[in-house]
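Hi C.,

You asked whether I'd gotten around to modeling the 395-residue construct. I have! Everything is below, sequence then structure, no commentary in between.
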Amino acid sequence: MTAQGFDVFDTALGPCGIAWGGRGIVGVQLPESSEAATRARLRRRFPDAPEVAPPVRVRRAQQGIVALLAGKRSDLSGVALDLDGLPAFQRRVYEAAREIPSGTTLSYGELAARLGAPGAARAVGQALGKNPFAIVVPCHRVLAAGQKSGGFTAEGGVATKLRMLAIEGVTPAKKEPAANGALGFDPRAALRHLRASDPALARVIDTLGAFSLELKKTQSLFGALSEAIVYQQLSGKAAATIYGRVCALCPRKLPTAEHILAASDTALRAAGLSRSKLLSLRDLAERTRSGELPSLAALRRMPDDQIVERLVPVRGIGRWTVEMLLIFRLGRPDVLPVDDYGVRKGFQVAFRKRALPTRVELEKRGARWAPYRTVASWYLWRAADAARQAEKTRR
């Protein structure tokens, strides 16, 4: 395709590019490793096109792309594309893909069925692999069977696809849920992605060294949440003492819902529980015994948002507590606790801010880190720890 001009513009995903002709957009370029690399890629794709200020219709398309990648509602179905020269089947695939709304997905097979060619899933995948209009033709919303992510040919590969889906609030199924004590993602892939998407965070990673998050082994969801309730708003030493006394009330020193419900208020208060925490443990135990809460095995198969929704009705369990469960018990890759003081303080230190970031500021920057915001959070915690230790040394 020939282009009359191209332009590079900034988005939450990084510097994107767009090229246009007389009939519409002829190409959209997802971010490369840097703005210069994105520009170089566009020049290779459209060697005769100059870099010029885009006309109004193209600026509107850019604005829509920027909004979409910032997590806002943005309908790009009206953006005119120049499909001349493309094979008829490829054009039909792109037209069908443009009808997939933001925040939803189809499988390759489902998209093929919509085209009236139910056996053409592989051909659909091949057509989407050649998509020159990424984002405007949202090929990232087409997944492999079983809600698996499938492939992606853009810079960053599947990590970029997952990041775009995360911005739209979609979490594809993992190949396997994290086993007890095992992370549910590849830390090496996470670090490559974070370094490429945020040079400032890359410097923090270089300063603090290797990623070494260790998960706490978990015997049951009740055990994990009961420990979390006991530890709330206490020092680690005091909480460990009280939790040890609660465990001592139970056979094999492993608290279960039945044991907590059978224990007297007097015994639980004598262990050091406040009245509020006693009531929280009772509520957790009742909901566990009634089957209202999922088993740990079922939990591992659930998406993050569904886990939050199922657990926050428990007395004493808020979103932050569930986020800690997702990170330190389940090893989920894309959790950013925006209300956590340590994460906010680490952000202030790492990015040299005068004040703690607002929730909006942290979420906006965090969009760059998806789908590995857990790893970014871990480094922000370490940055806060390092700053605190440096202050103690200075004093």
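If it helps when you're writing up: The CA atoms of residues 326 and 332 lie 6 Å apart.

Thanks,
B.
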